[in-house]
Design a protein that fits this description.
Number of strands: 21
Largest sheet: 9 strands, antiparallel
Number of helices: 7
């Protein structure tokens, strides 16, 4: 061994100084590399001598019958949520939610708080918790109380029966929303796509009704933008408020309106950007805008069967829809008049008057000589006289 080491030493150190330095340096780097490799992270462990044994165990899932038995062992509850639909009754909405509980029906109809559920509006939601037999254990609804204020109704089944609670103290959050749309087929189709409530659409019509004839002036490509209020409670929409600003572009004509709050006893109103009031002498639409069945035209009368001038506009609307006076005036006629059926004529200033025909009934205590203001309810839509269906025949004379 000594002879080998001496020979290596002679080989390393028995050369020139420069060669010896390079050789020693190279040898040092080799030792460092070998040491680094020995401790490098991630190196595979030495598994020599380790025995590996596989263990398997068969798992058995419970059968369908066993699963049903497990479910039936404990009482099961089901939570459902439904929106109120047009024409819904207490029975129809609860039946749709799987409630089959005579005690619950009796309690809702007699309890002073619970019976406010009967005033829930279309589009609002009701939530219930029942067992598999339809027995009601819990019900929640956001509705309107007898003072027309938003309220939460909660029914809970306890050992002695149902308990109701009414929380009208939750805060109402006001939001300002902006929506816009383009008309392709109808105004209501466009506002539905833009998710604008119908009440806001009706207010939009009221604002621009003296500038735009919504029965005949609308064109494909007309567009609108609306900024309006909404009020929310516990994350649910309670109601829509006022339109704060609106713009309607009809056949390249731009109409704009902004709401200004009244000062003192003066009421607020809508004004154009040049400061002119949007309120005009006459309402063009004396009832809530839905659709117009005919315009001012020469057409064949559906009952008389002959050609005659149709002097007015027919507004198709459900029976019972309120009819408003188009302007301030005095009632000049109330009663039955031939093909008009139940008719009211309101006399305004100078020689102007408006007539409202085919009413189902008149407003309570309405009589000749009564003073009415613009917007007052004077009667309700019907189908009396020469009429093929419920509508208002409106004339401006």
């Amino acid at each position: 061994m000594w002879h080998v080491s001496r020979k290596i030493g002679a080989t390393l150190f028995g050369t020139t100084k420069k060669t010896r330095v390079i050789s020693v340096t190279a040898l040092s780097l080799a030792f460092i590399a070998i040491g680094a490799a020995a401790i490098a992270p991630g190196a595979p462990p030495d598994t020599t001598g380790i025995r590996i044994r596989s263990v398997s165990e068969e798992m058995r899932l419970p059968s369908l019958e066993e699963q049903i038995a497990l479910l039936n062992r404990d009482q099961q509850f089901f939570t459902r949520e439904e929106k109120i639909r047009a024409g819904d009754t207490l029975h129809s909405i609860l039946t749709r939610m799987g409630v089959d509980d005579a005690e619950a029906y009796a309690f809702i109809r007699t309890d002073s708080i619970a019976k406010d559920i009967l005033r829930i509006k279309v589009g609002k939601t009701v939530q219930t918790k029942t067992d598999h037999n339809g027995k009601l254990y819990w019900l929640y609804a956001s509705t309107i109380d007898k003072d027309n204020q938003p309220a939460d109704i909660v029914l809970t089944r306890e050992a002695k029966g149902f308990v109701s609670s009414n929380d009208a103290s939750a805060s109402v959050e006001r939001r300002v929303e902006m929506r816009s749309g383009i008309i392709h087929s109808s105004l209501f189709a466009a506002t539905d796509i833009a998710e604008i409530p119908d009440i806001i659409t009706n207010k939009l019509v009221d604002i621009f009704a003296t500038n735009i004839d919504f029965s005949s002036d609308l064109r494909s490509g007309d567009r609108f933008s609306i900024v309006y209020e909404t009020f929310w409670r516990n994350g649910a929409l309670v109601r829509a408020g006022r339109i704060l600003a609106a713009e309607f572009v009809n056949a390249d004509n731009i109409y704009q309106a902004v709401w200004f709050e009244g000062i003192g006893n003066r009421p607020g109103g809508y004004y154009s950007f040049n400061g002119k009031s949007q309120k005009k002498a006459f309402l063009r639409y004396p009832l809530t805008f839905t659709r117009i069945s005919s315009g001012f035209s020469t057409r064949r009368h559906p009952i008389m069967g002959l050609w005659k001038q149709h002097r007015g506009i027919d507004f198709a609307a459900p029976t019972g829809t309120p009819i408003h006076s188009a302007a301030d005036g005095t009632v000049d006629f109330v009663g039955w008049q031939g093909g008009y059926g139940n008719l009211i004529v309101v006399k305004h200033w100078n020689a102007y008057s408006t007539a409202y025909g085919h009413m189902s009934k008149f407003a309570k205590d309405m009589k000749k000589g009564d003073k009415v203001k613009q917007g007052d309810i004077i009667g309700y839509v019907g189908s009396t006289g020469y009429s093929t269906g419920p509508h208002l025949h409106y004339e401006f004379r």
